[in-house]
Amino acid sequence: MYPAAFDYHAPKNVKEALGLLGKLKDDAKIVAGGHSLIPMMKLRLAQPKHLIDLQKVPGLSGIKADGKALAIGAMTTHWEIESSSTVKSKLPVLAEVASVIGDPAVRNKGTIGGSLAHADPAADMPPVMLVLDATFALQSKGGKRSVPARKFFKGPFTTALKPNELLVEIQLPAPPKGAGTAYASFEQAASGYALAGAAVLIAVAKGMITRADLAFTGLADAPFLAPAAAKLVGTQGGSDLIAQVTSLAVAGVEANDDIHANADYRKHIAAVAARRALTEALARAK
User: Fold this and answer.
1) SS3 helix, strand, coil % of the chain, rounded to 5?
2) Is 202:241 a contact under the CB 8 Å cutoff?
3) Rounded to 5 degrees, what angle do the CA atoms 119, 105, 108 make?
4) Which neighbouring-strand residues pair with 138?
5) Rounded CA gap, 255 and 225, in Å?
6) Which of 52, 54, 47, 45 is nearest to 5 (CA)?
7) Which of these, 3, 23, 34, 159, is most buried using a 10 Å CB contact count?
8) CA-to-CA distance for 94 and 174, rounded, in angstroms?
9) SS3 for 125?
């Protein structure tokens, strides 16, 4: 199918892009890599009157290390994250997740900021942002503000971004000493999106778990942290306890039900993904 008619804008800098957003507001959509928005436009699920392309805007990509923390520009591609030695050494789970997004064409063109701002409820990266406790830098003509990832995702394709704002940077704090991270998912074969996926961060000190974060994608209308993971804190983990936690984590969730997987099946595979990710993260933490 063909998208509905729209006006195309290619700003040359951030100021110009923000000016367009301030003027066009809800009538405009930002396109970064285009691999999320363009298919929706072809299906006419999205029909913006104006498209603002950030490809020619400098200063929005790159990976910077500040001590043990990382800052990633919103226009940084999945491939750049997947192949970055800095990411692999500091937050390897980011490189691992980037490597399973879509296919090589998507990873070479798609951007981390575009994916996060698009907020597809089945995207791989959002739950990782939750467990890593990332912060998103949002910029408008009035200045910048910071929004924690844990307050950013509001619902399917809905975020804390205002119509006049750009997501310009993802800021990732250093994980606790002795932390292990992991991501596991079951993907829909044709699209590569997660039917259900789980991201985990576990920190261990003196043989005991001191922090446990578990987040899901694909399971519900938005990525979310599972409070049940807190039951691991103060323990040594173990397969029985992990199985108990994963069962509790999906219990009571209003799971998505569609042509790819019904709600019960989604809960089942989400629990399996969570168990795998928790087990792997604990092994890495040790």
Assistant:
1) 35, 30, 35
2) no
3) 75
4) 145, 167
5) 14
6) 47
7) 159
8) 13
9) helix
The answer to whether 110 and 35 have CB atoms below 8 angstroms apart is yes
Q: Which two tokens stand for residue 75?
A: 């226009």
What angle do helix axes 263-285 and 239-250 make, rounded to 10 degrees?
A: 140
Residue 164 near residue 18 (C-beta atoms within 8 A): yes
Q: Can you list the domains of the chain with their CATH numbers? A: 7-53 (3.30.43.10), 63-172 (3.30.465.10), 179-285 (3.30.390.50)
Q: What is the greatest pairwise CA distance in the chain? A: 61
Nearest-angstrom CA–CA distance, 273 and 42 = 32
Nearest in space to 227 (alpha carbons), one of 254, 202, 246 = 246
Q: Give the confidence band of 37 by pLDDT, cuts at 50, 70, 90.
A: confident
Distance of alpha carbon 184 from alpha carbon 279, whole angstroms: 10
Q: What is the pLDDT of residues 105-159, one digit of tens each?
A: 889 999 999 999 999 999 999 999 999 999 999 999 999 999 999 999 999 999 9
Residue 14: Cβ within 10 Å count: 17
Q: Over the stretch 234-243, which tens digit does the pLDDT of each residue have?
A: 999 999 999 9
- Three-state DSSP class for residue 5: coil
The model carries a pTM of 0.95
Tens digits of residue pLDDT in 167-184? 999 999 999 988 999 999
Q: 2: which 2 tokens?
A: 């063909």
